[in-house]
Amino acid sequence: VIISSVQRHARHSFFWQFVFHTYTTAFTLVNGNGTPKAQGYSLQQKQLLLGLGAISYSACVGALPLAFMNRYTLKNSLMHLVVRKLLPAPLLGLTSAFTVAMVRSPEFDNGIEVMDRNGKVIGVSKKAGEKAVMETALSRAVLFGTTFFLPEVLMHCVQRARIVKNPRALGPVRMFVIMSVLAGMLPVSFSMFPQCGEIKRADLEPEILSSTEETVFFYNRGI
Prior knowledge:
Elements: H1 2-5, H2 10-30, H3 43-71, H4 77-86, H5 88-103, H6 105-110, E1 112-115, E2 121-125, H7 126-161, H8 170-190, E3 196-200, H9 206-209, E4 216-220
Antiparallel strand pairs: 1-2, 3-4
Transmembrane segments: 48-69, 81-103, 137-154, 175-193
Subcellular location: Mitochondrion membrane
Pfam families: SFXNs
């Protein structure tokens, strides 16, 4: 996150965002819901291919603002502010959510297990899988989008107030701010939705409901 945020060349930005999304994709693979099973294809192979495609696409999109800046010399200060300072944050948030949705797509294609209050598996639900993936994608978007956006705002305030008078000290200060925001946002992101997700009876498929009278069901959301 830190290295990606300080890049000024599109090629370097692409490389470091590729590394970043590779790590987050591997983390997503390890910590997803393990319900989906292979049916006529290698599930692991499919997830790896989807992950590689999502990583490449996300790295390209993330480097796009700098490529635009390098390709066209923009003299307008407002355009510099938008392209270099404001645009990377929502792009990183969206691409982080996108990689989660792509890698864990088998969960809403095939469904995940839902349980009653006693932990007994009632069935496999695609709607629960979709809910689990969307919640995880949203929490990931908030985590990295905020981590990119808030330090830019804070550093702008620091520079305007001339709190740091030595220009060479701005780099270490920026790194400290990014690390602080990231450390603060991690527990916020993980606690946005409970690890053991809850879904109401009305939101499940009818074939699952025929075997039970429970009104609330639970599932493993993953992180």
